[in-house]
Amino acid sequence: MLLAEIRHACAEVARRARLVRLNEERLADYARALPLERLQPSYDTRHHYLGSPEATVAYILTLDAVNFGSGYFPQLHKRPGLSGYFTVAVSLKEAFEQDGPLSAEALRDLSVERCATMFGQTHTAGLPLMRLFSQALNDLGSYLLKRFGGSFTALVDAAEHSAERLVKLLLPMPYFQDVSDYQGLRVPFYKRAQIAASDLALAFGGQGYGRFDDLAALTIFADNLVPHVLRVDGLLTYDEELATRIARGELLEAGSLPEIEIRAVAVHAVERLVAVLREGGSAVTAQQLDILLWNRGQEARYKALPRHRTRTVFY
């Protein structure tokens, strides 16, 4: 099972890790302190598009095709008061509201210049990321045309209400192939492929195109924010040299040992939290905790401290 492989590999990385440590002794107290009453988030229509079912599916798959670039966000021209992610989400929302959904043909043929204009990146600093965005959207359009007759909903229908199957359907696109090698151990994360299922579930309230009978099987969506939250909260501890590198804004190389350990130990930490909470009678999932912790990371006290940055197409 693909999602079980993620859990197994991340647990093994956590066992071997030298630079990132899960503070097991703090798990119970941390779990008890989590505001579980916030585990039922609603779809954020302030920053995300909601239209007809078909248009909403197109928006979510298009957004999640470019839901990466946190390592580039310091150079991204952001909208006032918005983070890099919300700048991207709102820009795409407005494009859909003004001109309608981008068709598979339009995505296949989308130029870097058109992409930069759509996301408000008309200065040169943002162009490296816009080149990656353009390629990701070209890949999505080509894949939809080749496999699903250009239909976004046909891709989701092919998953047959399985989040894991949706993940597998997205993996033929290169920028979804989120797998690292950790000292000979294959470590898959599939952050953006997994979040596509989660986003669809949120947008459709778990019904229709958002119904996934195995949604609880998703892991967290390993990026650089949830590990940061867990570290600030004291659940993760970083090696002193690694912490210093992050504090001075040094980029971590994609696929490097510290970068893999940060992501993998965070995945394992949340799996351990889920286990502790379930032992206490709470039917919580990793997906729910990811949303809770990611939203916590929007608070000022987390934003005030540097998190790791990696220039990658995977988060």
Summarize the structure.
The chain has 15 helices and four strands.
Roughly what fraction of the amino acids lie in strands? under 5%
Strand order of the largest sheet: 1-4
Shape: globular
Number of domains: 1
| Count of helical stretches | 15
Largest pleated sheet: 2 strands, antiparallel
Give the C-alpha Rg.
19 Å
Low confidence ranges: none
Number of strands: 4
Write down the overall mean pLDDT: 97
Query: Would you tell me the structural class of the helices and strands?
Result: mainly alpha
Oligomer: single chain
**N→C terminal distance:** 23 Å
Q: What percent of the residues sit in helical stretches (DSSP H or I)?
A: 40-55%
**Sequence of secondary-structure elements:** HEHHHHHHHHEEHHEHHHH
Plain-language structure description:
- The chain has one domain (2-303).
- The strands form 2 sheets. The chain has a two-stranded antiparallel ribbon with strand order 1-4. A two-stranded antiparallel sheet has the order 2-3.
- The chain is 53% helix and 4% strand.
- Strand 2 (179-182) and strand 3 (185-188) form a beta hairpin.
- Helix 1 crosses helix 13 (257-279), helix 2 crosses helix 13 and helix 6 crosses helix 7.
- The protein is globular, with a radius of gyration of 19 Å.
- The chain is mainly alpha-helical and 315 residues long.
